[in-house]
Design the sequence.
């Protein structure tokens, strides 16, 4: 198992190979193959621009401006926007902003096609199922160069990523309780959310695996 999440050394960030701990995934024997992927034409410029923008030279910017920066520097003109119906107003505003910055925007709502949830064996509650596969395919057919996922549900976003031809970035991750800021739950993991995130009586997988080994 890899345990970067428990590592406080972060020798990788300092590029100190000799300091990498036991079991460090940075010792991956195929890292040279990974390097070769970054050098491929299809990844080189995109990866380079994203790294430059992420360095926040000139000060941090809102994510939407970082998106615009990346898209402009990569020379993209046609942007795909896959959004949740609950974000219809935000999608409209986002389109206005992107068009102002010179982009063409193809937008597709999650309910496109109006397919009944019975397709997924779910009793219909009066509204259509989310249709991320169609969102991706429609944007693919329009030849969008860079796609935005705006507020798609957990897993529907995964299907959208799976079927999208263009690279996808997330502008907002839906969280129905926490104002679309899912990590807020983590900030309260040792406070008000402790019993929600760590329900009493349930053991963590790692603890259970350790006990199994001891048997
Ligand atoms: S890659 Fe290695 S050094 Fe970096 S966080 Fe993971 S375990 Fe730590």
Sequence:
């Amino acid at each position: 198992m890899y345990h970067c999440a428990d590592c406080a050394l972060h020798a990788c960030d300092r590029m100190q190979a000799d300091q990498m701990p036991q079991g460090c995934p940075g010792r991956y024997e195929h890292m040279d193959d990974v390097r070769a992927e970054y050098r491929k034409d299809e990844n080189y410029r995109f990866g380079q621009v994203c790294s430059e923008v992420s360095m926040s030279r000139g000060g941090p910017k809102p994510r939407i401006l970082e998106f615009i920066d990346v898209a402009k520097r990569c020379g993209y003109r046609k942007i795909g926007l896959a959004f949740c119906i609950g974000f219809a107003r935000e999608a409209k505003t986002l389109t206005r902003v992107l068009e102002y910055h010179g982009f063409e925007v193809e937008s597709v709502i999650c309910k496109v096609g109006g397919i009944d949830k019975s397709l997924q064996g779910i009793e219909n509650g009066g509204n259509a199922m989310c249709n991320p596969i169609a969102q991706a395919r429609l944007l693919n057919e329009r030849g969008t160069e860079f796609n935005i996922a705006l507020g798609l549900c957990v897993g529907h976003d995964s299907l959208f990523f799976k079927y999208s031809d263009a690279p996808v970035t997330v502008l907002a991750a839906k969280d129905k309780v926490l104002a679309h800021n899912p990590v807020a739950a983590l900030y309260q993991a040792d406070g008000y959310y402790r019993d929600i995130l760590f329900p009493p009586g349930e053991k963590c997988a790692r603890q259970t695996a350790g006990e199994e080994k001891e048997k």
Summary: The chain has nine helices and four strands. Strands lie at 78-83, 104-109, 146-150, 168-172. Residues 4, 7, 9-12, 20-21, 24-26 surround iron/sulfur cluster (CB under 6 Å).
